[in-house]
Amino acid sequence: MQGLSDIKTVKKILSKYGFTFSKAMGQNFLCDPFVCPQMAEMSDISEGWAAIEIGPGIGVLTAELAKRADKVIAIELDTRLKPVLEETLAEFDNVEVIFADCMKIDLHSLINDKLKGKKVAVCANLPYYITSPIIMMLLEQRLPIQSITAMVQKEAGERICAKVGTRQSGAVTVAVDHYSKADILFDVGRECFIPSPNVDSCVIRLEIRENPQYDIKDEKLFFSIVKSGFSQRRKVISNSLLAGAGIGKESLLRAISNAGLKPNDRIEALDMQSLCTLSNEILKERNYENK
Fold first, then answer.
1. In 3D, which of 103, 28, 29, 27 has the Cα closest to residue 62?
2. Both 225 and 182 in a single domain?
3. Sign of the CA dihedral 23, 27, 33, 37?
4. Model pTM greater than 0.70?
């Protein structure tokens, strides 16, 4: 359907079906003629590929993905958009819209049942309020996907793609870096959405790593330490890591020393290698305590 990037057209379609925006769902639909084509193009989705989109809105990005991919699965929470999407995507026979909560759907089964034999990538304009949970869900499930290209709040994108060991990094930064290589592709102004949000956005791309870049002996312990440290990031690691490490203070101090670190270091200053080494040293101390 032509004109989906035109605000007047969008408003006319939504009015036709009595649709009103939901703040609770964080609905801000893209309505810019350049952003969606650029986003779809930079996702590298093409012939032989399948795309999973989360939150298609009125289908502007969906249409661009459908022009490039063999198959597009769009997962939408708001069932009120069903008649809207039936109209806006009527010309595409390679699009399937599934009305479900992306946080609850079995994506492994979905990919295996509907997209088997194709390279798969996620491309989506994510709701601001649930950006990090969605990204972490996609990464932690170790889905057979090649990449995630996502529109996110600019501040969130900068945090997600920050270098581990800088002040801007956080627990999500560490997790994203563990599972993928993250980059900011381009910025998107608030005027590109309807209704316009109060903040600007950016498009990020996470290239999924085939193999971990660092040797982490116990991922569960590693992320427990990271979560504990960043939840108290103003404290020094000899204090902030106690809860996540699950060992005594003396053992923690020994692990910190063996990792080549200092008790008064702060977790935000540790790079990925230092975090991994520290996690492995804490694991040794924990195993020793449990003997």
1. 29
2. no
3. positive
4. yes
